[in-house]
Amino acid sequence: MGHDVNSLFCRAVLCQDYVGDLAAEIRAEEEEVWVLECLGTLANLTIPDLDWELVLKEYNLVPYLKDRLKPGNDYIIKYALAETSRSSSANMYGCSVCIFLPLA
């Protein structure tokens, strides 16, 4: 079956319980492959009531993303776009901290 396990898993209501755990793993000290898996899982979450701005702030994800946002780093770019476009508050926060400035 050609299903993406990550996408199927992320549609489950139970994923909301693990957002903090996944976000906490996104830091420079962790192995890059693991961090990318955590980023990808978060990017695929479809939880309408989740405050994505709070996730970005509470887990200090913006500095991590800004350090890695470079032309050609498509995975990080896609994640940053996914996170900041989830809600108007996350979008405004992303703009206020100039998250995409490194791509200019």
Largest sheet: none
* Helicity range: 55-70%
The mean pLDDT is 77
Question: From the alpha-carbon coordinates, what is the Rg to the nearest angstrom?
Answer: 13 Å
Relative strand content: under 5%
| Poorly predicted runs of 5 or more residues | none
* Strand element count: 0
How would you summarize this macromolecular structure in one to three sentences?
Helices cover 57% and strands 0% of the residues.
What does this structure look like?
- The structure is a single chain.
- Helices cover 57% and strands 0% of the residues.
- The protein has 104 residues and is mainly alpha-helical.
- The mean pLDDT is 77.
- It has helices at residues 5-10, 19-24, 32-43, 52-58, 61-68, 74-84, 88-96.
- It has one domain.
Annotate the secondary structure layout.
Layout: H1 5-10, H2 19-24, H3 32-43, H4 52-58, H5 61-68, H6 74-84, H7 88-96
Helix pairs in contact: 3-6, 4-7
List keywords for this structure.
104 residues; 7 helices; mainly alpha; 57% helix; globular
